[in-house]
Amino acid sequence: MTLAKLLPWNWVEKITRIKRSSDAYIFQFDIAGFDPKDIHITVSGNALMVHGEKKYDREKIGWRSYRRERRFGAFYRVLPIPDGVDVNALEAKYSKRILTIRIPKLPAARLRRRSIPITVEA
């Protein structure tokens, strides 16, 4: 089954980017403003669950916000994991506001498409 068929119709709103290389699937989340310690990643069956929470920071005494555009609150995403991957080798990294989750493909899934010749017997 392809990754595109597994994703919900509105996946673009929820994930910054999903990439597929010859050896892995890569999920990238924009979590700007979230502390990586408050982000939790779980795998259950064929589901990748990512959730976190950024608590509202109270204003200092004497200060009032004129305008606030910082994101706070909780998020929770559940994504299907494609077949042919090694979930035990899943890696997660946080860099420059982006959480990157890499799930390597199993060796059998790394095979490229190729034509198979047909031998004609007399």
CATH architecture: Sandwich
What share of the residues does DSSP label as strand, in percent?
A: 35-45%
Strand order of the largest sheet: 1-2-7-6
Q: Quick one: biggest sheet?
A: 4 strands, antiparallel
Low-confidence stretches: 9-14
DSSP E strands, number: 7
| CATH fold type | Immunoglobulin-like
CATH class: Mainly Beta
Features:
122 residues, Immunoglobulin-like, elongated, 4-stranded antiparallel beta sheet, single chain
Question: What does the model show?
Answer:
This protein is 7% helix and 37% strand. With 122 residues, it is mostly beta strands. It has a single domain (14-110), classed as Immunoglobulin-like (Sandwich), CATH 2.60.40.790. Strand 1 and strand 2 (24-30) form a beta hairpin. The longest helix has 4 residues, at 3-6. The radius of gyration is 20 Å and the shape is elongated.
Question: How would you summarize the topology of this molecule?
Answer:
Blueprint: H1 3-6, H2 11-14, E1 17-20, E2 24-30, E3 39-44, E4 47-54, E5 73-80, E6 91-95, E7 98-104
Can I get a quick summary?
This protein has helices at 3-6, 11-14; strands spanning 17-20, 24-30, 39-44, 47-54, 73-80, 91-95, 98-104. It has two helices and seven strands; from the N terminus they run H-H-E-E-E-E-E-E-E.
